[in-house]
């Protein structure tokens, strides 16, 4: 008898934490004999790795669950699993069970290593399972050897977050901050380099507080120094930086390490001190502007990106104008802009002064218009320069061309052969758009 193929498809929502978790689940499943497939229709197991940072993210998941219900009726053996941050919220597992009773498995972020075993149990018993433990499980290190996927890789350095920004659900669903031991991080980076990786992105909700919970006194600057020493590695990135914890020592260290890329994602969230305080961010706009000046002084050509929230409870027109003013002063290369979304269980969700959606939309539009003008001007200023690009593969918008990123994290599209994927090439920038640059290769 021919054995049936075991196949899976993972659909990932949210941030790089989830992307990394999804990779880990894919590794676990492949270890257990499953093959990844491109289409949901071909999969024997479908996993939705969910995000709940804003309401929109949750709505997408409920929409998707509705779509895949039909697949279950045509294939009763299909196993549908929901994992990720949504599952960690109180009451949400019950809500999904009610709204989508055809879901077979609800699995918390601290229990992912149980995935293959649970799927086998579900197949054998034909009974749904809910496995949601503490968010703060131990840092698990003895997972199967991870597979590199091309020349770039995410490497988690901390789990969870201790900051409790008043709008944010992440500390509730991902638990308190836990740092991985430096030797485990370095071992993982070396293994990835052995598999052909040349660029790593170190991941944490606040990379700047790395090591505070470890007894050996290492901090983020010390970790960067050790990663920088890994032979064969060419580029180091890191997200996310917290302006409160970005020390002058760290700025200097970054300026001295050749592999650390000239880009910082430094979410400011708001430009008004009153709102920053209500957000519990722990810095002022003056501190932020000084930090930006220091980064630009010590790291010439550095690109800066940010996250901004409009319509936080109580935000007045004057507060919002402070945000516009800060954005105009800093001249960010790019910004992710969000309308405040009240998250159940967070402080801001019940603060007085909740704003109507129309006000939030109008402010978001003004902010985006300003930032788009700045992004375009910043890109235009780069035209004519020769830059190093790590080729990521065919461009999504024009598959006949290649796309890749500069050290400053600018997306560049240029003609070239697919075989260059994963390589570093020299490109002259020829044309600027708001979100990307066009270029041509200088040498092969
Ligand atoms: N730890 C990072 C930080 O400190 O910025 C990223 C956290 S979150 C995954 C990414 C972004 O989502 C935040 O920077 C913030 O701008 C936005 N965000 C978080 N909660 C939000 C909410 N309730 N409404 C709107 N945007 C939110
Ligand atoms: Fe959320 Fe703030 Fe933690 Fe970032 S630092 S994950 S915004 S609580
Ligand atoms: Fe979303 Fe969880 Fe990341 S809530 S933004 S996937 S940590």
UniProtKB/TrEMBL annotation:
- Any idea which positions bind [4Fe-4S] cluster 2? 161, 165, 168
> Residue limits of the TRAM domain?
380-443
Q: Which SMART domains match?
A: Elp3
A GO CC term attached to the entry:
cytosol
Free-text remark on how the cofactor is bound: Binds 2 [4Fe-4S] clusters. One cluster is coordinated with 3 cysteines and an exchangeable S-adenosyl-L-methionine.
Q: A Gene Ontology MF term for this entry?
A: 4 iron, 4 sulfur cluster binding
Give the Pfam families listed for this entry: Radical_SAM, TRAM, UPF0004
Query: Subunit structure, briefly?
Result: Monomer.
Report the protein name in the record: tRNA-2-methylthio-N(6)-dimethylallyladenosine synthase
Q: Which organism is it from?
A: Neomoorella thermoacetica
